[in-house]
Amino acid sequence: MSGPLALTVGIFAVMLILMAIRTPIAVAMFVAGTAGYIVQAGWLPLANFLNAQAFARFASYDLSVIPLFILMGNFATQGGISRSLFEFASAVMSRFRGGLAMGAVLACAAFGAICGSSVATAATITQVALPEMRRHGYSGRLATGTLAAGGTLGILIPPSVPLVIYAILAEQNIAKLFAAAMVPGIIAMLGYMIAIAIYVRLVPGHAPDHDDAPKVTLKLLSGIGPIAIIFTLVFGGIYGGYFTPTEGAAVGAASTFIAALLKREINWKKFKHCFYATAESSAMIFLIFLGADLMNAALALTQVPAQLAGTVAGWGLSPVMVVAAILLFYVVLGAVMDELSMILLTIPIFFPMVIGLDFGMPKESVAIWFGIMVLMTVGFGLLAPPVGLNVYIVNGMARDVPIAESYRGVMPFLISDTIRTIVLLLFPPISLWLVQFLK
Amino acid sequence: MKILEFLAKLCAIAAGVLLTGITLMTCVSVIGRNTIGRTIVGDFELTGAAAGAAIALFLPWCQMRRGNIIVDFFTAKASERTNAWLDRFGALLFALALALMSWRTMIGGLNAWKSQSGTMMIGFPEWIIYTAMVPPLVLCVAIGLAQALRGFSRQVHE
């Protein structure tokens, strides 16, 4: 093995070993990156690099969209809009068998339209939907599986924190990526509903034959009012050219806060909780950013990533096969690793590789489509065993359901995910359709 | 530990208020721009600056709550004792990494002070942002060290 390659392997080995022994992922990256940087360039260049690094990463206008969207999601979570939302959604779907589960999926999708986090979406809708589903005789397996899967709609439907991170790493337009995610997000929602419909027919005993849910009334319809208004305001503003995505996030956070105030749901205690929750999620993400910066700087010094792009392009593989291989790699790595860290670590390596391939589309289209594909695997990783974060969150809120039951419950949704991902992989125009309408 | 927890909470709340302040300022700016055609000068830069301080201020609380995500897949079968020791080692590495960041950010702040560098539009002094970032970074070091020395037996609640 040549020097740079051995060094690259060494850097990764240090990082992976530290990760395996429970070092926070961000710190594992930071330590491995620091060591790799010093070995190659010495201490002084590293010191100079670090002087402004925290400042450059944290005090960035482009990145400030992340804490703002997280704050917006937390205001929405605490704002008490989820209950009326779920009541409306389950009334809409009540005519179908398994309607309450489908209603939960619909509620997750609607909530996902103002929340960019899958965990927040899963937790928020679970709070209101899980007791209802159990009361109506849905099995723990189906109920928790549905809610864990529905939670991923929080990131599949824009706004989406992972998509923002991808946009920043790949230097792509956030608004265009959000637009691209819209159709696949709706397909995901419909796919989950179909999965429920098939499941309750194939495997009896997990859902009642009929839900005695109320009919759709004007009063119930008003339940989705706040979300519809906020969504229209934020995305209408972004796509109407009235403001940037960061401003959209700020307007969204402010209007969600006002909606919560009007519902008289928010008090100082909940307000503080919003701050704490925003602190935890944002700090976690930005520390990973910092760690990944160090890793990527060290890897860039080895020049292996740059050569890798050339090497792969030289193999003459079918471009779609390369992307499929990357996605498969993500699914395997995502089984044990946090998805955000995975994106931050690998996009700087994989993105130039993918962009260097000839898909017969403009580079920008490739970048957008690849972003959607990466997002799909993130959603998959949140559900798939052995470590599906969403499954943990939902299962933790359902005390009487064993975790193995919840993992059985997500299986139909994982099949739905797989089918959708393959379709989107083979037909990029689905992801690019809405983007063409943007200037 | 109690004082560290208090400080971490204080930082998180301060950052939350700062972030909420940004949202309000942005709303005013957006409404101004789209109605009377006037906007707050340098709003982008103030947003970036405030976000920078807010993110740094968020870090201590995240570490306090053990919010920095780990991979527990490979140690799931290890004993609780082993995992507790590994977590303390992790906290120590966190403290060391953040100590390096605190130190270098301090140097970066001094450089910004000496060169009097500011943001592009309104010349907002960068050293102010650096100055806001260093104390929470140092607090992270203290929290990491305390966790490494004492372990995680104490529960941290909001």
Q: Pairing-aware structural class of the strands and helices of chain B?
A: mainly alpha
Largest sheet of chain A: none
Low-confidence stretches of chain A: none
CA radius of gyration of chain A is 22 Å
- Principal-axes geometry of chain B comes out as elongated
> So what's the oligomer here?
heterodimer
Uncertain runs of chain B are none
**What characterizes the major β-sheet of chain B?**
none
Biggest protein-protein contact in the assembly:
A-B, 64 and 68 residues
As a whole number of angstroms, the C-alpha radius of gyration of chain B is 19 Å
Number of helices of chain A: 22
Can you put this structure into words, describing what you see?
The complex is a heterodimer of chains A (439) and B (158). Chain A is mainly α and 439 residues long. Chain A has helices spanning 3-20, 25-41, 43-51, 53-58, 65-78, 81-93, 99-112, 118-135, 140-156, 161-169, 174-202, 218-221, 225-239, 245-262, 268-302, 304-314, 319-334, 339-355, 363-383, 389-397, 403-426, 428-432. Helices cover 74% and strands 0% of the residues of chain B. Chain B has helices spanning 2-35, 43-64, 80-115, 126-150. The model of chain B has no long low-confidence stretch (mean pLDDT 92). The chains are: A mainly alpha (439), B mainly alpha (158). Chains A and B meet through α1, α2, α3, α4 and α5 of A and α1, α2, α3 and α4 of B.
Q: Summarize this, please?
A:
The complex is a heterodimer of chains A (439) and B (158). By secondary structure, chain A is mostly helical. Chain A contains 22 helices and no strands.
Keywords:
A: mainly alpha; B: 158 residues; mainly alpha; 4 helices; 0% strand
